[in-house]
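Milestone 3.1: sequence recovery, worked example.
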């Protein structure tokens, strides 16, 4: 075979949660029937991610709304995975979809996305394509901006737009605890990546 002289490009990518996640989850309850319990799990994941130094201070998870069963968890892996799209929400969507064998996470029944911070512009865009029927957030958009993360341009009426698409939005659940994860990351000198900075 003539190897030729044409371009060689990568042909697959993979993302993996850090090794501590599976044993950490094994020590948690089997289900998370209340919104409070779901947010606490996600903030626990984000906090441990900061403690372990395994990525940015954001976590997300997909839950079956009827039972509180956890379908998938996501963490921000942008820096360790060299992947700009590896936000916690996107990782959770990918793992839940590949775990269930469907891109439409809501096909078997209503599911919720629970996030430690309100979504950035990219993740906001992905939410209607994911099949979730509820978005629950802890820290606010401005809490992430306050420590230097760029959330991108979002329409000011984004919660109303999601609601109009049939996706219920619940904001600011345990916001104080959500902010604490962000400030702990900032205080520890965590990497606040921002590729826009390299353009200017
Ligand atoms: Zn995002």
């Amino acid at each position: 075979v003539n190897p030729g002289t044409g371009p060689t490009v990568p042909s697959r990518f993979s993302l993996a949660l850090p090794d501590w996640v599976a044993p950490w989850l094994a020590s948690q309850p089997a289900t998370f029937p209340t919104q409070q319990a779901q947010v606490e799990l996600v903030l626990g994941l984000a906090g441990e991610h900061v403690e372990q130094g395994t990525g940015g201070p954001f976590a997300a998870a997909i839950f079956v709304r009827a039972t509180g069963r956890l379908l998938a968890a996501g963490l921000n892996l942008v820096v360790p995975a060299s992947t700009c799209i590896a936000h916690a929400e996107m990782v959770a969507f990918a793992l839940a979809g590949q775990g269930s064998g469907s891109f439409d996470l809501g096909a078997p029944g209503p599911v919720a996305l629970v996030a430690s911070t309100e979504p950035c512009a990219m993740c906001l865009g992905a939410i209607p394509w994911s099949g979730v029927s509820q978005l629950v957030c802890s820290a606010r958009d401005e809490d992430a901006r306050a420590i230097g993360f760029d959330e991108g341009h979002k329409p000011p009426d984004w919660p109303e737009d999601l609601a109009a698409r049939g996706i219920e939005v619940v904001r600011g659940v345990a916001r104080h605890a959500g902010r604490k994860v962000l400030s702990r990351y900032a205080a520890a000198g965590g990497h606040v990546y921002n590729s826009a900075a390299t353009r200017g």
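The longest strand covers residues 56-64. The CA atoms of residues 127 and 149 lie 20 Å apart.
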